[in-house]
Every structure is written in structure tokens, then in C-alpha cells.
Amino acid sequence: MAQKKTSEVDYSMQEKIMALYELQKIDSQIDEINKVKGELPLEVQDLEDEIEGLNTRIENINGEIEEFNSLTKQRKREIDQAKIQIAHYKEQQNNVRNNREYDAITKEIEYQELEIELAEKRLKEYAVAVKNKKAQLENAEAVVADRNIDLTAKRSELESIEAETADQVAALEVKAGKAKTKIDERLLTAYDRIRRSVRNGLAVVTVKRDACGGCFNRIPPQRQVDIRQGKKLIVCEYCGRILVADNEE
After folding, report:
1. What is the pLDDT of residue 106?
2. What's phi and psi for 213, nearest 5 deg?
3. Model-level pTM greater than 0.85?
4. 3-class DSSP state for residue 248?
5. Which residues are registered as beta bridge partners of 113?
6. pLDDT for the residue 71
7. pLDDT confidence of residue 249
8. For 243, which DSSP code?
């Protein structure tokens, strides 16, 4: 009875290992399909990020232009107010009783004239700033228009590829889902971690000609026996990939 239980446990582990290998083959097929997309997904993402950044810049420039326009209105109001004050002071000069009052009013007039001069200087600065900002705005909007054309073309190309391969990928994902039902969460987590860490996405490889199918380092004979028996999960001591027996060999 105890022997039967051990046998069942051994078979269960072997089944998990072979399910991992099956999952790897399915994922490799999906990887090959995704290769057709090339750099398109990244290019689309980069364009979307660039456009978002440019739109933020356009928004900021518009805000700065609005601020300069607001300051322009404020300075113009100050000039109008100063002119009213000057007219009022000049009227007062006609009714002064002595030179001291006349000089005091004259100083007030001079002060208001300086205020006008300063405000007019600021108005010229604002006009130059608004002109520069509008040039920046025009340039940014032109770049956004160009990037949107590129984005539309690349999105269309990517969507076309995805449409062509959608049925195939969906079928493979169903197969992958079935394989995963035979694998416990711990092994799946390890599998995903290894796949992310290796360049070609091969987390499970066979032993070919006494060597690891991932890094091609030699596997000791006793370790190969353990791999063929499938009683426990064995990883390559050099590259960390999960090792399975090559049924063809």
C-alpha cells in the first residue's frame, strides 16, 4: 500500500514537470507569434508617452500665455489709472497757493509718469514673451500632429497583426490554461520568474547530448538519471533553468 502511494506521488511530480514542459512549448509558440509584432508595441507606447508629454507642454505654454495676457491687461489698467491721476494732478496745479504745493504735485505727476514708463516697458516684455511662447506652441502642435500620424499608422499595423493572430493565440492560451491546472502555484511562480530572467524566455529545457539545452553546460550522468526519473524538480546549476528529459533521446 505504501509503495502504491509513493508511486502515485512520483507520477504526480512527473506529471507536473511534463506539464511545465508542455506549458513552455506553448509559451514559446506564443513568443514566436509575438515576434511578428517586432518593436511595434514598444514604438506605440513610446509615441503615446511622447504625445502625452507634448500635450502637457502645450497645456503649460497655453497657461503661460494666458498669464502674460492677464498681466498685460493689468498693466494697461495701471497705465489708464496713472493717466487719470496725472490729469487730476495737473488740474490741481492750476489751484495751488504756493511753490511748495506746486512742487509736491509735480513730483506726484513725475511719479505717475515713471509708473507709466515702467508699465509700458513691461508691456513690451510681455509682448515678446507671448510671441516666443506662441512660436513654441506652434512648434509643439506641429510635432504632436506628426507623432499622431505615426501613431495612427503603427497602431493600425499592430492591430492588423493582432487580428491575424488572435485566434491562434487564443487557442494556445486555452492549452496553456489546461497545462497550468496540473502545476501548483509554487512551480508556476518559479517558472514565470525564470522566464522573465532569461533572454529567450526558455525556463524549461531538455538535456541534449549530455548538456543543458539552455546554457549548453555539461550535466553530470547521475543528475541526468534523476532528471529522467522525474521524481523531483531539477534546475541547471549554471543557468537556473528547469531541466527535463528529452523523450526523443
Report:
1. 95
2. -70, -5
3. no
4. coil
5. none
6. 97
7. 56
8. E
Task: Report pLDDT digits (tens) over 109-150.
Answer: 999 999 999 999 999 999 999 999 999 999 999 999 999 999
Tell which residue, 214, 218, 206, 205, has the closest CA to residue 247: 206
CA distance 84 to 14: 97
- Identify whether the C-beta of residue 151 lies closer than 8 Å to the C-beta of residue 44: yes
Which one-letter amino acid corresponds to residue 120?
A: E
144 alpha carbon, distance to own chain's centre: 17
Q: What residue has cell string 508595441? A: 41
Q: Residue 224's closest CA among 202, 206, 248, 204?
A: 206
**Dihedral of the alpha carbons of 215, 216, 222, 224, in degrees to the nearest 10:** 90
| Sequence letter at residue 18 | M
- Among 167, 225, 228, 215, smallest CA distance to 30 is for 167
User: pLDDT value at position 9?
Assistant: 40
